[in-house]
Amino acid sequence: MPSVTAPAPYDLRFASYANDFEAFASAHNLLIQKYYHDAPTWSFCFAHPRGGQAKLDLTIGDSGTLTLETVWWIDSYSRFTRSLKSGAKTDVPREGKEALAALRDALSMVTSWQTGEWTQVADDYKPIWGRYSEAQFRAMTPQWPEPVL
Q1: 22 within domain boundaries
Q2: Which residues contact 127 (CB under 8 A, 6 or more apart)?
Q3: Does 43 map to a domain?
């Protein structure tokens, strides 16, 4: 008798959206990072057009509620800082087409953000980043794809 592996609990939550969200990521050249740190979240990751990295985090709650968070950051190795721009956490409609529209709107918003409009500049990364040369630090930074808008 063949063995059957049950899907992970988060896979079950995302099951009704998976095909649409994967098609969205493919159409916009985004990398999907699923369940980072074991969270019920799909992150749509990309290289921001103005430098650094950005992502759209779509989290699904126990009851199936969807929330969307957006963030863009640029690291400065020479200053040991991370400059961040975050959008407000928003509820996303559970209907597939409306959820996709919310993702498209979020992608458009994040890619329109300008350098210097930071929500936060985090500093004091020297104890961690300073263990590496700048070349080593850059080599450890994920190379996410350029988005297609």
Answers
A1: yes
A2: none
A3: yes
- What's the rounded Cα separation, in Å, for the pair 20 and 103? 11
Burial class (CB in 10 A: 0-12, 13-18, 19+), 24: buried
- The domain containing residue 68 runs over which residues? 9-72+83-117
pLDDT category at 72 given cuts 50, 70, 90 is very high
> How much of the chain is in helix, strand and coil states, percent to nearest 5?
30, 30, 40
The answer, as to whether pTM is greater than 0.90, is yes
Average pLDDT over residues 47-71: 95
- Confidence (pLDDT) at 49: 98
Task: Give the count of domains, the chain.
Answer: 1
> How does DSSP assign 11-76, residue by residue?
HHHHTTTHHHHHHHHHHTT-EEEESGGG-SEEEEEEE-TTSSEEEEEEEE-TTS-EEEEEEEEEEE
Task: Locate 126 and state its tokens.
Answer: 């020297």
Distance, CA of 27 to CA of 36 (rounded, Å): 22
